[in-house]
Design a protein that fits this description.
29% of the residues lie in helices and 25% in strands. The chain is of the alpha+beta class and 441 residues long. The chain has two domains: 14-106, OB fold (Dihydrolipoamide Acetyltransferase, E2P); 134-429, BirA Bifunctional Protein, domain 2, CATH 3.30.930.
Length: 441
């Protein structure tokens, strides 16, 4: 027999099982995270969204049916437990729950395939993602996703409070915004299409009705990269501002990061502690290096460089490790940037573009800058980079009918999470990541 549960499956959370609530009658619900069977003494660790609590059973002091059920319950079973809180300074949590009733909602299979407590077996990275639907229960993984939620909420609040409009752009496109072979192609009702590499063209179009736009928007790139900062499906914090230059965009990114870091320190203290991560709020203005200055800096760090190509992963990592706060790289060569980046009037070989870099070796967070707003110049850029003008007809058309000077950026959301949470690989910032090797569950 399993004791019947009341219509309310829980009235309290694990957080309520504390020394301040000595004697309180509670009904909690959660997962059995740990079982320690000492013969005539059983300790259960129960986990819910609030945290964990300890349930203590003495064989001679509890109902025999409750004792029997606790002897049979398995790890990760879902239970409701009714009982009394008892303060106990010997407990790591300061209190324990003495049960009078237990109800098993879902009895888990007897042998859980991974060790969420990490007390017996440390999970290797392949096991973590092979059983991802189970490994997301790990409290440290939960802490990452809770930080992600805090950061997403802070991002939206930052932009909305500054008068930006959130936009939602299409994800199936007929034309690639970034070019190249890094596209996921699909058949769209017998027409060729691609998954969006970015929302660049659409956020530019939105300026005519909103002027200041942002979004947290998914993107896909078929890159067979195996670096700690690459995944094939990711989200970006997108932004575009009418009548702005690259200087305003740097200001926005500085203010955004400072706002986010303050919110994380305010709302994510428990998560940072669980991840053993210490962060500080960066100070304005962030340091700025031109592309050429950064190349020289990398060379000074003992790494051979080619001044005509973009930063490779070893160069970027070494440069990033040389800084303790975020910084900008500016003035990238035109041949390394997309068709929509504006060039300097005095030097058409240099773009008015920039990358925001995280310190500590985490590397690039965002790319952005001043955009081309002149129809003729944009048409020339498309032709010069070898693209078919026919594929860009709708995009070019909007530049014929009143496009203001503008600037914007796209900031990798998971890259930001990786840096703030101090993760070894960007896939840890995703609930269900996608890499060249991982596409399930």
């Amino acid at each position: 027999m399993i004791y019947a549960v009341s219509p309310k499956m829980r009235t309290h959370g694990c957080r309520d099982v504390n020394s301040n609530n000595d004697g309180l009658k509670v009904l909690i619900g959660g997962w059995v995270q740990q079982i320690r069977d000492k013969g005539r003494l059983i300790f259960l660790t129960i986990r819910d969204q609030q945290g964990i609590c300890q349930v203590t059973l003495h064989e001679k002091k509890v109902n025999p049916e409750v004792w029997r059920i606790c002897k049979e319950v398995s790890l990760e079973s879902v239970v409701s437990i009714k009982g009394s809180v008892k303060a106990d300074p010997r407990s790591k949590l300061g209190a324990e729950l003495i049960p009078s009733m237990i109800y098993i909602h879902s009895q888990a299979a007897s042998k859980f395939p991974i060790d969420l407590t990490k007390m017996k077996t440390q999970m290797d990275i392949d096991t973590i993602f092979r059983y991802r639907e189970l490994s997301i229960r790990d409290p440290e993984v939960v802490a990452i996703f809770e930080l992600k939620n805090i950061i997403a909420s802070a991002t939206r609040r930052f932009f909305l409070e500054k008068g930006f409009t959130e936009i939602f752009t299409p994800l199936i496109l007929t034309t690639s915004t970034e070019g190249g072979a890094e596209q996921f192609r699909l058949d769209y009702f017998e027409h060729p299409a691609v998954l969006a590499q970015s929302c660049q063209f659409y956020k530019q179009a939105a300026l005519a009705c909103h002027e200041k736009v942002f979004g947290i928007i998914p993107s896909w790139r078929a890159e067979k990269s195996h670096t700690p900062k690459h995944i094939t499906e990711f989200w970006q914090i997108e932004n575009e501002i009418a009548f702005a230059t690259e200087k305003e965009i740097m200001d926005v990114q500085e203010d955004l990061l400072i706002f986010i870091m303050k919110e994380v320190l305010k709302e994510g203290k428990l998560q940072l502690e669980l991840l053993n991560r210490t962060i500080t709020v960066p100070s304005k203005p962030f340091k700025r290096l031109t592309f050429n200055e950064a190349k020289k800096k990398v060379q000074e760090l003992g790494i051979e460089v080619d001044p005509q190509v973009d930063f490779g992963n070893p160069e970027e990592t070494a440069l990033s490790k040389a800084f303790h706060e975020p910084f900008f790289l500016t003035e990238f060569p035109t041949h390394l940037r997309g068709i929509y980046y504006a060039c300097h009037d005095q030097n058409p070989k240099i773009t008015r573009s920039l990358d925001l870099m995280a310190p500590e070796g985490f590397g690039e967070l965002s790319s952005g800058g001043q955009r081309v707003s002149d129809y003729k110049i944009l048409k020339e850029r498309i032709t010069q980079q070898g693209f078919n003008l026919e594929d860009f007809q709708w995009y070019l058309r909007m530049f014929k009918y009143g496009m203001p000077p503008h600037a914007g950026f796209g900031l990798g959301f998971e890259r930001l999470i990786r840096w703030i949470a101090n993760l070894s690989h960007i896939r840890e910032a995703c609930m269900f990541p996608r890499t060249p090797e991982i596409f399930q569950p």
